[in-house]
Amino acid sequence: MRSAGWPTWDRRKPVHRRGSPVWVDAFTDHTFAGNPAAVCLLDGPAPDGWMQALASELGLSETAFVWPAQGELSLRWFTPSEEVLLCGHATLASAHALRETGHWRRWVAAPVDADGEEIAFRTKSGRILARFDGPVIELDFPADRPVALATPVPDAVAAWGPRAVVAGSMPMAERGTDLLVELASAGAVRSLAPGLGAVAGLPHRLVAVTAPGDEPGIDYVVRVFAPAVGVDEDPVTGSAQCLLAPYWSSRLGNGPLEVAQVSARGGRLRVAVVGDRVRVAGLARTVLTGQLAPAAGPPGAAAPVLPHMGPPEP
Question: What is the pLDDT of residues 113-140, one digit of tens each?
């Protein structure tokens, strides 16, 4: 998917010292919108307990941890309460942070500082590619084909008056698969006030509530609720497109499709289904960098492992 109609990437970007994490707004062309994620760039793997503790301390919907591993990059994602098997916006944020800091030029085998280059992440959901096309970052995810529910529609969901309810076929967390609920209109999606306690009790990682777009250039809208994994409403959800894109493509064509996530912060995505993969593209903006106190770093670390603005180390 090309970057036509989207802003030009500004190469006059800040660089950050090796080992720094970065706070990034993903799936937006300006700060204070989209979905914020913290990206922690590490020299090597860290204990699970420390990664979970830091994610809980930061309190964002997702914190990503990235480190070099045999010419590729290992990537894991944590909500404030648990690890998840796939996260879109924190993957987009990770690719953005790696490009801005220049870490990937040191950490991967092939040069990657040119349009059209890609980088590979090793994850618990398999190998994920991030490709750059100017300012646009395109992620390559597995398609999650929708299947009929094996049980009756839960009462909490039936009360929303859905047109259709389907589940994903791919586990996304210990909690299980995703649930897709189509409502009659984009207005119904925007005005929905779900009972989050009832949603948290469903056997699904998240509930994606969707409808056809009601604005020029928008193919479908969505809101995503994930209280079961510690996120009441996710501002923008790239991983949910693994299920949403195949669902809407069966009606609208394989894409590219333009998506608006109509949360309070809002965000834009571009998706396309290619065989058994879903391509999810968007923009990202750096909000801040910082630095952990030495006592807060991972056990055994010789130096702090979070952000500091400044020139890269040699």
Answer: 444 588 899 999 999 999 999 999 999 9
Q: What is the pLDDT of residue 63?
A: 95
- Active site (annotated) includes residue 62: yes
Domain ranges of the chain: 22-141+284-296, 147-272
Q: Which CATH architecture describes the domain 147-272?
A: Roll (3.10)
pLDDT in tens, 217-239: 999 999 999 999 889 999 999 99
Indicate the DSSP class of residue 258: E
Instruction: Provide the whole-model pTM.
Output: 0.85
The 3-state DSSP class for residue 257 equals: strand
Joined together, the tokens standing for residue 125 give 């959901």
User: Residue 242, SS3?
Assistant: helix
Q: 7-27: string of b/e by CB count within 10 Å (b at 16+)?
A: eebeeeeeebbbbbbbbbbbb
- 22-141+284-296 and 147-272 share one fold: yes
Catalytic position from the list 57, 62, 100, 258? 62
Beta bridge partners of 6: none
d(CA 104, CA 180): 36
34-72 pLDDT, tens digit each: 999 999 999 889 999 999 999 999 999 999 999 998 878
Q: Summarize pLDDT for 7-24 with one digit per residue, the tens.
A: 665 554 444 444 467 999
- How many C-beta atoms surround the C-beta of residue 282 within 10 A? 28
Per-residue pLDDT, 296: 82
What backbone torsions phi and psi does residue 125 show, to the nearest 5 degrees?
A: -105, 15
Q: Identify the three-state secondary structure at position 7.
A: coil
Is the peptide bond prior to 311 cis by the omega test (within 30 degrees of 0)? Answer: no
What pLDDT is attached to residue 196?
96
Cβ neighbours around 222 below 10 Å, total: 28
* Residue carrying the six token digits 């098997």: 85
Domain 22-141+284-296 has CATH 3.90.226.10: no
